[in-house]
Amino acid sequence: MKLVGRVEEKKILNQCLADHRSHFIAIYGRRRVGKTYLIRQHFQNSFDFYVTGLANGDMHSQLINFSQALHNFGQEESTKVPGSWYEAFTMLTQLLEKSSCEKKVVFIDELAWMDTPRSKFMMGLEYFWNSWASAREDILLIGCGSAASWMINKLIRNRGGLYNRVTRRMKLSPFSLLETEKFLLSRKYKIDHYQIAQLYMALGGIPFYLDLIDPTLSIAQNIQQLFFQPDAPLQLEYDILVRSLFDDSDTHKQIIKALTLKKTGLSRKEILKNIDIKDGGGLTRALLELEQSDFIREYNKFGNKTRDSIYQLTDPFTLFHHRFLRNFQHDSNYWINQINTPAINAWQGNAFEVICLLHIGPIKRALGISGVQTSTSTWWGDGAQVDLVIDRKDQVINLIEIKFSVDEYVITKEYDAKLRNKVSMFQQATKTRKALWTTMLTTYGLKDNMYSGNVQRVIEMKDLFNE
User: Fold this and answer.
1) Are both 382 and 283 inside the same structural domain?
2) Which of 44, 84, 91, 321 is the most exposed place for a label (fewest CB within 10 A)?
3) pLDDT tens digit string along 221-270?
4) 218 and 130 in a common domain
5) What is the pTM of this model?
6) 127 and 15 together in one domain
7) Are 150 and 157 in contact (CB under 8 A)?
8) Residue 1 belongs to some domain of the structure
């Protein structure tokens, strides 16, 4: 099956493959985002060595598994099982030295599972790379893992023998809307941009979840089947996901739950008020790991200093879980019966705002400012809020209002007055001297009337699907 998207990632892999020196690539990202699939498809399962760790396996089991992988790639069957990771990587070195390939591709998946307590796995890996592979020109070592805590703290930010030894790090993020569209088309599911956005609100851009879609069913039927049927495949996914990613998942769960309280996010102090955790390095580490795993974003309210950072929950799948599944009572037609209710409409409005925050690049392209230096934020004051603020180096600030509707959005007399009041309050509060442009980002643009001309720029949902 053809690999969809991942253009930049494939470019990096090809560059490292063609380079006349050895490379150590660390690939990380949340569970189900397609890390293993990317590597296996890109290299067409043609490796000089490939092994994946065993979930919950002890050191002896991991070494047996590693030994079997060595046999699969040509090591003599009579060779004994290594007694340590030092010995295991020595055997790997011996295997690779026999290879005549111009570039020897070594893929070690789920590294964190191999690093069992007191196993000295990292010592063996450091020995393999520092004493042998890095001095050569023909090794492409790819280390992959879903456990964000481990990948960030033990590999990418390693302060021991692998300090600054990773030559490329690749964070695999969820699909964009455009990549999601291409993925669904590759699965013969032809739906329009509005429906793709609705699906994205529940599943995000996670390939594994999207691959569960039944192309013979409607969006509502698919959501019902994936989340709300008895034994639905994604009903318990959130808990499994968080546990698999983070060592101290309870801390991360508490932070996520706190962030559901306010759609614009919470400051560090506000988070601490809502969780049973003391301030310190543990909280800092958890916030970083959540951000690196695409659960949250860190930003500053317009005009605030860096120390006043706001943390906002921006993962559609997690937001959907907390909104509809946390206290769900089984009902075979739950989601179908929710269609067009005020609760669903309000959720879709908020979820569309999150989708827009995840697609700042396409928004800038639609505004014609891809090459202009910008900063993005949100702003709120007394009784007023701007969904998205794009502060531009060319002395313009776009104040973006985001609306999700089934048709062209109609600006009424009352809403026009509200928009003008927001601009006035923003100017008074921030004292900015830049030009303030009211910008509307809607599903199908604006209905032409006597008030629509007061909006300087209009962006449509289709613009979010642009390259």
Assistant:
1) no
2) 44
3) 999 999 999 889 999 999 999 998 888 899 999 999 999 999 999 999 99
4) no
5) 0.92
6) yes
7) no
8) no
